Amino acid sequence: MAMKASLQLRVGTHLTMTPQLQQAIALLQLSTLDLRQEIQQALESNPMLELDDEFGELAVSEAPEEDWASEIPDELSTDSEWSDTYQDLGGPAGGSEGPDFERQASGESLQGHLSWQLAMLELDDRDRQIAESLIDAVDNAGYLTQPLDDLRDGLKAQGLDGLRTREVEQVLLRLQQFEPTGVFARDLRECLMLQLASLPDDTPLLPQARRLVRQFLEALAGDDRRLLKRRLGLDDQALDTVIGLIRSLDPRPGSDFSSSDNDYVIPDLLAYHNSRGWHVELNQQALPRLRIQPDYAALIRRADKSQDNQFLKDNLQEARWLMKSLSSRNDTLLRVGREIMARQIDFLEAGEEAMKPLILADIAQTVEMHESTISRVTTQKYIHTPRGVFELKFFFSSQVGGNEGNGDAHSSTAIRARLRKLIQEEPPRKPLSDSKLVSLLDEAGISVARRTVAKYREAMGIPASSERKRLR
């Protein structure tokens, strides 16, 4: 077959991903915190950009000079605090007696609190290294998650030759005296025993409580009252007292401390109600406002083709692209947010039980955008409402029961909220079975299968009725 060159003319359309379009899409899917970092990098690299106002700066009133100590004393007692000599501007107005421990501990991690106590403990270098490894092995709940043999092997690899498990256990016993009580336990039984050991000896029925935790914790979990009364030699009233004492303990002693990987959310939108109804607006404090630097912009000369002038032109164009992309992001976010809340007004007024079915296609069709755009807009974007701060994706929920457009359709979120409420209000001695929950939902006009109820219950971390039975 002979091969020859030829020309063909074809007509077609295709989307070209220009740098401006790529930037707009990238900014659209960034969270507020990530976008702040992106804007800060642009401010540092582009001389044509500057903040439109003093964003994020607060005026601080100066305290009268006579309210402060005139000079720093040469010596302070070892047990003194900075606030003993100098005022604490972070304290509440009017002053208060004693240090604000809640404020001081609000941002402290469990590991930091344990390390602070370790610093006050007299240990040699070898035991201190063991203690530091034990602190690193404690999880956020306060439990020691690694076996002592593994910790011993790791310490031996770090240079502690001849280390035995017994030495690690001895250091562990000293650390188990730290606050919060129950920390460094290796399981729930040890955690509860540590807390019972710290109670006064004259605590009513304390020996029976210790024996129950030590020998019959599984029977307590299974609600085997008959076995507990027989083995502990208690009547119903005494057994209730023992169980109440055990329930007063904290099974997660480290949970009151903040985790080191906390995620902070800045809402992009604000939903509020006034005499004219519900409104959704952009959070003006979420992002800084940018503008073109007028002095540098005035230096640009159109006819000048020097390298410096071209540098200013390129940066000016990039600054305009960024500002246009930010404006487009805000407009898209506001349009989508308003449409979502317009469809979920009942949630704002009545809570999760009034949530309506909603999918991405519903919003995309109304605002005339692609579903992928709606997905980007609602991912890691948050709205502050009178009921709390929610991700925009929270308001999308699948339809359960009924046909599309019919009034008998319910959202999965509303059904889960109704289930949670029914279980919270159930009789403690006679929990509701899945079949009974189906009947109660049916009486409320919600028709679902028993397997659907079981799936939602398990997704919310709620055990079955046989395991939910508890005493009061």
From TrEMBL:
Biased segments, Acidic residues type: 63-82
GO biological process: DNA-templated transcription initiation
GO cellular component: DNA-directed RNA polymerase complex
Ranges for domain RNA polymerase sigma factor 54 core-binding: 104-296
Keywords assigned by UniProt, alphabetized: DNA-binding, DNA-directed RNA polymerase, Nucleotidyltransferase, Sigma factor, Transcription, Transcription regulation, Transferase
Region described as Disordered: 62-107
Segments forming domain RNA polymerase sigma factor 54 DNA-binding: 310-470
Listed PROSITE patterns: SIGMA54_1, SIGMA54_2, SIGMA54_3
The UniProt record lists the keyword Amino-acid biosynthesis: no
UniProt-listed InterPro entries: RNA_pol_sigma_54, RNA_pol_sigma_54_core-bd, RNA_pol_sigma_54_DNA-bd, RpoN_core-bd_sf
Highest taxon of the lineage: Bacteria
GO terms assigned for molecular function: DNA binding; DNA-binding transcription activator activity; nucleotidyltransferase activity; sigma factor activity
Record function comment: Sigma factors are initiation factors that promote the attachment of RNA polymerase to specific initiation sites and are then released.
Family: Belongs to the sigma-54 factor family.
Protein name per UniProt: RNA polymerase sigma-54 factor
